[in-house]
Amino acid sequence: MCNDNYPLKPFRIKSHKLLLDIIAKYPLATVISGMDTNLQITLLPLMHQAGEHQPGLLIGHLDRNNPQAEQLVTGAKVAFVFQGPEAYVSPDIYPDRQLPGWLYIMVKGDGVITRRFDNDGIASILTESTSRFGAPDQQFNLQISDDRIAQFSDGIIAFEIIIENITGIAKLAQDKGPKHAKLACEFLSKKTTPSSQELLAKLVEHGLTEEIV
Question: pTM of whole model > 0.85?
């Protein structure tokens, strides 16, 4: 997923924990399938789960009427992208002469569909996803006994992806040095949620020191 020339080493996210933190905070993924024949792309929320090996599994669901549903069958290859905060940055934020650019955070990878779930599995996934995606602020908790799950489950497919490759990029001006990276992080922090600001700071530190594991 990475080579010696791209992305620049300060932008590479080598920490598995940081990759999972990004997925947890930005779970709405772009899921791509049918790369060799009929390309299909859908935005889908995905949950990470530990598996028998790192980097683990991704669990998702979508409307059965979505054309991509026909491709998300056992054995199918898929690719995914999780997009974190991003923004165009003007050189005005820096104290010296720089060029403009784009700050962004993303995780990408690929894997294989290992199974599709039956209605009981769909019910469990729906209840877990509402709890996980809504935490910590939501009051609503979907109960597995809720009759609306049975009403809609026949119109849903749920699937599991075993991750084969995964990598991340945090382009936060780390190549320009600590002072510039801090300014870039502060700039991007103003365009995201307070809960993501700690993650941004860790990503900058990781790019400068590579000590976070």
Answer: yes
